[in-house]
Write a structure and sequence with these properties.
By secondary structure, the chain is of the alpha/beta class. It has three domains: about 1-155, no CATH class; about 155-230, no CATH class; about 235-360, CBS-domain, CATH 3.10.580.10. About 60% of the residues lie in helices and about 15% in strands. The protein has helices spanning about 20-35, 40-70, 95-120, 130-135, 140-155, 160-170, 175-200, 205-230, 235-240, 250-260, 280-290, 315-325, 345-360; strands at about 5-10, 15-20, 75-80, 85-90, 265-270, 275-280, 305-310, 330-335, 335-340. The strands form three sheets. Strands 1-2-3-4 form a four-stranded mixed β-sheet. Strands 7-8-9 form a three-stranded mixed β-sheet. A two-stranded antiparallel ribbon has the order 5-6.
């Protein structure tokens, strides 16, 4: 993710922080300073929000480490002002495994809340309603309450919340994964409508939550229905068999001519017998910005082109391409180059397949 910096690497997972998160820290520091007028208060505000997001990181590690038990890799966790995002390659498809991964995050928050409750009682910390409502209340008490809130909020049965995934996993024990996703998404959109009504009547902030839940449910359902269309399809069905190849010795202007003359945007680099790298349109534009048009393609730092077998399931291929931010793969059949597949091909295959399915209905 752009504007993100690596903060640490824990249990083999990078923890990144987005630049906008620093604005949130400054905002909290300013709120505390505005209320108390001291530098110490500003520091206290910054420490509070950083500690709170430390709990968010632990929440995401709950998901990531549980997913690891089921063979799912998490590439990194990124801290944003709206929360943490664990970049998993995919969610487990077995209902029980998905449920455990989804439950793990809120469970971490509840464990943190329990430990803080024990701490409060062991230290005889005085708590009151003011401790929750005012920023000068007990640090531990407010942190405990917020962790309980995070757990309960994440358990709302609506995508993209953990509760939506728990609901889908429960439904998937009695129906297909795609049908379970559609039903869970509909329920989630119902919650979005409810939050929207409450937002109009009571608190406009709930309107933002309503929008978040509505689009989250829509996106999750669309993605799952796309994957369902590809259930029994292979790379051979999506591959391009007629395409241009650029040679490592070609100059940039040659690649530009190919782009303008046809509809192909990304080019495999190599020969018909051996494709080694891929030159995307964005990389070509950047190269023209940084180098002379007579620069040869082999002088550029290009990503290696992955090769897959023609029998590779499209679902698996799509997951890998999206998780690795890969635009193109080469396809081999019987040990020989048969074609290439890019994300645009896969999306076209999905559109045509959905149109034919709708016609049959």
């Amino acid at each position: 993710m752009k504007w993100s910096w690596k903060l640490a690497r824990i249990a083999g997972i990078d923890v990144n922080i987005h630049a906008t998160f620093l604005l949130l820290v400054l905002w909290f520091a300013w709120i505390y300073w505005a209320n108390f007028g001291t530098v110490f208060a500003a520091i206290q505000g910054a420490v509070y929000i950083i500690t709170l997001f430390g709990c968010v990181v632990l929440h995401e590690f709950g998901h990531a480490l549980t997913a690891r038990r089921f063979g799912v890799v998490t590439k990194h966790i990124t801290l944003l002002p709206i929360g943490g995002v664990a970049a998993m390659e995919k969610m487990p498809e077995k209902p029980f495994e998905e449920m455990l991964v989804a439950v793990a995050g809120p469970a971490v928050n509840l464990v943190i809340a329990l430990l803080l409750w024990v701490w409060i009682h062991l230290t005889n910390t005085q708590v009151s309603a003011e401790s929750l409502m005012g920023i000068d209340g007990s640090f531990a008490f407010r942190l405990m309450v917020v962790n309980i809130f995070l757990a309960l909020f994440n358990l709302i049965p609506a995508f993209p919340m953990d509760g939506g995934r728990i609901l889908r996993a429960a439904l998937a024990t009695r129906m297909t994964h795609a049908a379970a996703t559609a039903k869970a998404a509909t329920i989630g959109q119902g919650f979005a409508i409810l939050f929207g009504i409450l937002g109009v009547l009571y608190n406009p902030f709930l309107l933002l939550i309503a929008i978040f839940l509505w689009f989250g449910a829509t996106a999750e359902n669309q993605m799952e229905q796309n994957r369902d269309v590809l259930e029994h399809m292979t790379a051979e069905q999506a591959m391009l068999t007629e395409f241009r190849i650029v040679s490592p010795d070609d100059v940039l202007s040659h690649a530009v001519e190919h782009t303008i003359a046809g509809s192909q945007k990304d080019f495999p680099v190599g020969s018909r017998h051996l494709l080694t790298h891929v030159l995307t349109q964005n990389q070509l534009v950047q190269a023209l910005h940084d180098h002379d048009r007579s620069t040869r393609i082999h002088e550029l730092d290009l990503p290696i082109l992955t090769t897959v077998d023609a029998s590779t399931p499209i679902k698996n291929l799509l997951d890998n391409m999206q998780s690795q931010h890969c635009n193109m793969v080469a396809v081999e059949k019987n040990g020989e180059l048969a074609g290439i597949v890019n994300l645009e091909n896969i999306m076209e295959l999905i559109r045509f397949s959905q149109a034919m399915q709708a016609r049959r209905r």
